[in-house]
Amino acid sequence: MAKITLDKLAHSYLPNPGHEDDWALKEMTHVWEDGAAYALLGSSGCGKSTLLNIISGLLQPSQGRILFGDTDVTHAPTAARNIAQVFQFPVVYDTMSVRDNLAFPLRNRGESPAYVAERVQEIARMIGMEDMLNRKARGLTADAKQKISLGRGMVRKDVNALLFDEPLTVIDPHMKWELRTQLKSLHNEFGHTMIYVTHDQTEALTFADKVVVMYDGRVVQIGTPEELFETPEHTFVGYFIGSPGMNVIPAKVEGDRAYIDGAEIALGQGYGPMGGRVEIGVRPEYARLSDSEGLPVNIRRVEDVGRHKVIRADFFGTDINIIAGEDDEIGADMTRVAFDPARVNVYADDWRVKPTGAAA
């Protein structure tokens, strides 16, 4: 296991990057704790797989350093980093049995036959392949082969880190929850440093101690699921986390009030002067329909999703989503939306602005 330090790390696939947009990874400095489980979360092309490949040694960064503990591994080959990596698509030895695929990393390191047999049986049980240990990998489904890849990644206890690059892409939906649970159990039992790349917020939030949200080559927030939900540090985090995502509305903010097209919205705290593009962000969970207060809206439709209702509304061309209880009545006169002042965040040029004090 190892603490992982990214020191002024950046990468470009171009030989002479000159513009900010030339960098696939913008400069970042972060320390990832020894033994923690992290999820790298973001949409396609945000740089998460590039970052993972730099950590694993498959890619050399254009600038900066990577340290495992106190050891600089920036230029060390993958084999010297003592990691295990599971890729998006299964990588197995087709001519070997499932048993031999799982045993290969342990035999390669000279472990005793008794230990190898015990550990292979344990991992096979975790991935649900005990009855297939003697079958050749050739001819197995992609789903089964990826479970072998996951098992082979987990079979060693002494690795510095376990790296997963969207490993459940080819797994049947009904198996995903079970395998995520098993990965989490493995982490709790052995305390490996784990980094899990995904574009699926459910996978990230259920797997990780901390989620690393990436956008346009930047890490825009590292936090617990609760922190990402309650205080998104960037509007992308608010949009990407949650279903529906955070409502983001252009506004003018003065002190503890926001002004939107002539309407006044109370804020839970006061704010100093700010420039740039100012917006407020509020989760649909903290919005409610009203017949007397808040912003005037046009309700387009109501979606009953079983546990609650999602109300899709429009405020002069700006979409606003509201989550109401399953039993909440929606009257014809409820044409305004009000926000919980304590749950409203303020943003300038997409970044969250810290309040200066309590509301007056």
UniProtKB/TrEMBL annotation:
Could you give one GO CC term from the UniProt record?
ATP-binding cassette (ABC) transporter complex, substrate-binding subunit-containing
What CDD domains does the annotation carry?
A: ABC_Carb_Solutes_like (cd03259)
According to the UniProt entry, its GO molecular function terms are: ABC-type ferric iron transporter activity; ATP binding; ATP hydrolysis activity
Q: Which residues form the ABC transporter domain?
A: 4-241
Family to which this protein belongs: Belongs to the ABC transporter superfamily.
Q: Does the keyword Acyltransferase apply?
A: no
| PANTHER family according to UniProt | ABC TRANSPORTER ATP-BINDING PROTEIN, MALTODEXTRIN IMPORT ATP-BINDING PROTEIN MSMX
According to the lineage, what is the superkingdom? Bacteria
UniProt keyword annotations, A-Z: ATP-binding, Cell membrane, Membrane, Nucleotide-binding, Transport
InterPro entries reported for this sequence? AAA+_ATPase, ABC_transporter-like_ATP-bd, ABC_transpr_FbpC, ABC_transpr_MalK/UgpC-like, Mo/tungstate-bd_C_term_dom, NA-bd_OB-fold, OB_MalK-like, P-loop_NTPase
Q: What is this protein called?
A: ABC transporter ATP-binding protein
